[in-house]
Amino acid sequence: MLTIGHRGAKGYEPENTLLSFKKALDLGATAIELDVHLCASGELVVIHDFTVDRTTNGTGGVDQLTLTEIKALSVEGKTVVPTLEEVLDFVDRRCLVNIELKGEHTAKAVTEVMAGYVNSKGWSYDDFLVSSFQKEELDTTFKLNPKIHLGVLTQASVGQALYAADKLAAKAIHPHYGLLTAENVKSAQKKGYKVFTWTVNEPAVIARIKSYGVDGIISDYPDRI
């Protein structure tokens, strides 16, 4: 079972930063989950929200700010917003990287970055998993490069995720843990899908979800897994 650090180790360090990803690896995470948006100058930056307001000392939409402007911002006075390439270079194949396509029109840029790491830096497509709530972004990813492993995120229903996964030839579904039962986990796995669930932080809930036999748990506290 994969121990997946949510935005790194969000419970301990500023989310989606190199500090957070380092902490996740130090705590034994075997995968990290991160979010990407395109900024105004065209680079993929690792940030969850559509604006920089919550996580930095700046304001404005991510897609309205250039990389130079974003890099000038502080995250909790400790660090800066990284690019996707900076995170991948830091990870250096030490764990699976789950890239969530959070922003619009991120699919093409992500597929290009991944292909670059596979073709030029010795990575494998097995080192990556691309997930999203946005089915159109997953569909674009699949059409651009069917070698990329896809995961369908859902907070609505496991059945809905499986329906979308069938259409996309996805490798995994990513349901909210509140949707899971032992039965629907086994059913999804019998169909050939991995089940990676989010965001599970409380020890009692972690124990229950583990008992269902999931393939991975996404947590702000990877050491609790």
Automatic annotation (TrEMBL):
Alphabetized Gene3D superfamilies for the sequence: Phosphatidylinositol (PI) phosphodiesterase
UniProt superkingdom: Bacteria
GO biological process, one term: lipid metabolic process
Pfam families linked to this entry: GDPD (PF03009)
Location of the GP-PDE domain: 1-225
Cited InterPro entries: GP_PDE_dom (IPR030395), PLC-like_Pdiesterase_TIM-brl (IPR017946)
Molecular-function GO term, any one: phosphoric diester hydrolase activity
UniProt-listed PANTHER family: GLYCEROPHOSPHODIESTER PHOSPHODIESTERASE, GLYCEROPHOSPHORYL DIESTER PHOSPHODIESTERASE
Protein name per UniProt: Glycerophosphodiester phosphodiesterase
Native organism: Flavobacterium kingsejongi
Native organism taxonomy: Bacteria, Pseudomonadati, Bacteroidota, Flavobacteriia, Flavobacteriales
